[in-house]
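Researcher: We're teaching a course module on how sequence relates to structure. For the next exercise, students receive a sequence and then see the predicted structure as tokens, so they can try to spot secondary structure elements on their own. Here is the exercise chain.
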Amino acid sequence: MCTPRFWFAAVSLALSVLAGAARAQTISMPNNTLEVAPVTGGYAVGAATTEGINAQNYTVELHGKITGLSHSNVSYVEVSLMPRSYWNPDNGAWNAGVYVVSWDASGLGLSLAADGVGGPYVYPLSNPSVSSPWDFTITLTPNGPSGGSATYEVAGQTLLGDTTPLAYSGDYSDAIIVVQFTSSNANAELSFIDLYATTILHPGDANGDGIVNLSDLQILGDNWLSTTAAWSTGDFTGDGNVNLADLQIIGDNWGHGTGPDLAFDEALSILAIPEPTAAACILAAASFMTLRRSRAM
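Model: And here is the predicted structure for the students to work with:
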């Protein structure tokens, strides 16, 4: 049976809603310096990751630091996340995907853009260096097959211009990181470090399929009261425990990704847990949460 200690903990934890995040998938590009060959006239050089990431079903953060840029006669710099189908290793894929660009018309700056449409910008900036890099983050939030929105920030800099999230389109289920730039200056260079993209799981999504449903609830039930758990085994708060706080997170996010195909209470009633005591405690805790919600309404 459920102990008084459990009920005390259940009441205490149900007073607050705790959320967490976990890294599901990460791709990265090694620290590198791209060099323009000593040729006459404009020239483009680029690189891309071989691994892709699913930015179609998950929110993705693209992080990077530009630590050096020979900006004399540099006309374009792009650090982007784009569908693999856009990329041509022979001549690049300019104005494609969601990307950071720079220019030197009257100073060097950064701007967020997608598929050739500009957005928020930081301009001008001092020249990037190892000690003072352009440290940026792009967050892409998908919205089904129609694309989604992107936001942008640069550490230590003030965001100017339009701050409206930027719409993007295309199939990002297999997106890659691309770095490319053009310059008419022989031996121009672009250096970058810490360039990676990572997916962020939605709270309550234990198995990482982008949906919060009975499968995730079953995982939590199978690991109920564990003190050595991880995100994949039902710990969404990051404290190593699987308890009412984690159950609350699943309940509050129930149906994310597809919409609820059955009610949360119904899912709890059919939950198959090996130990009856654990099942009884979970159902009792859920009943308490349901009663508390109804009184609050």
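Model: If you want an answer key for the exercise: The CA atoms of residues 21 and 47 lie 30 Å apart. The chain has five helices and 13 strands.
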